[in-house]
Amino acid sequence: KEVDTGKGKSEAIPIGAPAGERFRVLIADDDSVPREMLAFHLDRWGYDVTVTRDGTSAMDELRKPGAPPIAILDWMMPGLSGPEICRRIRESDRAMYIILLTVRRSKEDVVEGLQAGADDYLIKPFDKDELNARIQVGMRIVGLQRALAEKVKQLEGLTGTGQATNSEDGVPLV
Q1: How many other β-carbons are positioned within 10 Å of the β-carbon of residue 13?
Q2: What percent of the chain has pLDDT over 90?
């Protein structure tokens, strides 16, 4: 996708994985049936899938450098729950798109999950096409986050201060 930079030229905005790479997605679910179904569909759709069976293993994977930028988490798992993983990821300030995929369907559960830090919430059983569409939304958001982070680095390099500033008054932007 291209956007007008305001200087008479367009610039590509990365949507998804860098060229030649499969976009990485983590699945965390202690129930083998939905876990294997998710892994099957994501692999068929062209994603590079990392599968975990409990919340502790999921958190370990998400803390690694180069962790998948999208995580699909069950709510109730041994170790850490999906919402607890969401809270820990948000405390770390790591950019990641998180989908809670759970049997919990009350409005209170949806609100609790989103307030814990999930970006999206799907109820099992899920529609595979809806899940794929929501993952694509996550890819767009991750692509925009990456582009923004790159622009901030460029701005910091231009100012020579290591901090992006407003060119009119020198006030830090971040």
Answers
A1: 14
A2: 68
User: Which phi and psi angles does 49 have, rounded to 5°?
Assistant: -105, 130
Cα–Cα distance between 167 and 104 in angstroms, integer?
A: 49
Q: Beta partners for 99?
A: 72, 120
Q: Which residues of the chain have pLDDT under 70?
A: 1-21, 161-174
Residue 42 CA from chain centroid, whole number: 15
pLDDT at 134: 96
User: Taking a C-beta distance cutoff of 8 angstroms, is the pair 122, 131 a contact?
Assistant: yes
Q: Distance from CA of residue 131 to its chain's centroid?
A: 14
What is the C-alpha to C-alpha distance for residues 3 and 110, in angstroms, rounded to an integer? 34
SS3 per-residue string spanning the chain:
CEEECCCCCEEECCCCCCCCCCCEEEEECCCHHHHHHHHHHHHHCCCEEEEECCHHHHHHHHHCCCCCCEEEECCCCCCCCHHHHHHHHHHHCCCCEEEEEECCCCHHHHHHHHHHCCCEEEECCCCHHHHHHHHHHHHHHHHHHHHHHHHHHHHHHHHCCCCCECCCCCCECC
Q: Which residue in 171, 142, 139 sits closest to 155, CA to CA?
A: 171
pTM of the model: 0.80
